[in-house]
Specification:
mainly beta, seven-stranded antiparallel beta sheet, 2 domains, 1 helix, 13 strands, 193 residues
Length: 193
């Protein structure tokens, strides 16, 4: 990916960055981590004037594909997919935002950093939940810790209330370093009178 011309949007970027990048007049706190598997996680909180906002983002690179997903406090989920070298010296970018999420509810978008002093390991975990409707909830979490160092785990849960107080739950867990392996799946049914 080195012999073709640059993207049109990159023209003048260096000059624009010189005039605008890193000139911050608001309060900003950001935590980032990455692993050798290609997963990078970033959580940012910003206070500008009297308004506070934040976002959680994940970037994953696998072969010639780069996936960038960001969830912010306005309930927006932005996704950017970049494919390189589909045809030699090409770059294809697809960006999209999920449909109007303001009609639904996004919760407890959280990040956690823990340290095990005995093994000298740090674990960074981010997760959140999304109410699809009043009966259905989707949850997801991503961390940089697994059985072996430099592993990451991506977990997802879909929970649906089939009758009042009775739930069916489907879950999965994927090792982000071994995407060729079969993910783990779980199914639970909780019936309450």
């Amino acid at each position: 990916m080195n012999s073709g011309p640059g993207l049109f949007s990159d023209i003048g970027k260096k000059a624009t960055d010189l005039l605008t990048k890193d000139y911050i007049s608001d309060q900003k706190f950001s935590v980032s981590t990455s692993s050798v598997t290609g997963v990078a996680l970033t959580s940012t909180a910003t206070k500008k004037g009297g308004l506070s906002s934040g976002d959680v983002g994940a970037v994953y690179k696998y072969k010639n594909t780069l996936t960038d997903i960001k969830l912010d406090t306005e309930s927006n989920i932005a996704t950017k997919l970049t494919f390189t070298d589909i045809v030699p010296s090409t770059k294809t970018i697809a960006s999209f935002k999920l449909p109007d999420l303001k009609s639904s509810k996004v919760e407890t978008v959280v990040g956690e950093i823990s340290r095990r002093f005995l093994t000298n390991e740090n674990t960074f975990t981010v997760g959140g939940s999304y109410a699809v409707d009043h009966l259905t909830m989707v949850k997801a979490k991503l961390n940089n810790h697994g059985k072996l160092s430099n592993h990451g785990k991506l977990g997802a849960v879909l929970q649906h209330e089939i009758i009042p107080k009775s739930l069916v739950t489907m879950s999965t867990e994927v090792d982000t370093r071994a995407l060729d392996r079969t993910p783990k799946f779980g199914l639970a049914l909780a019936l309450k009178p």
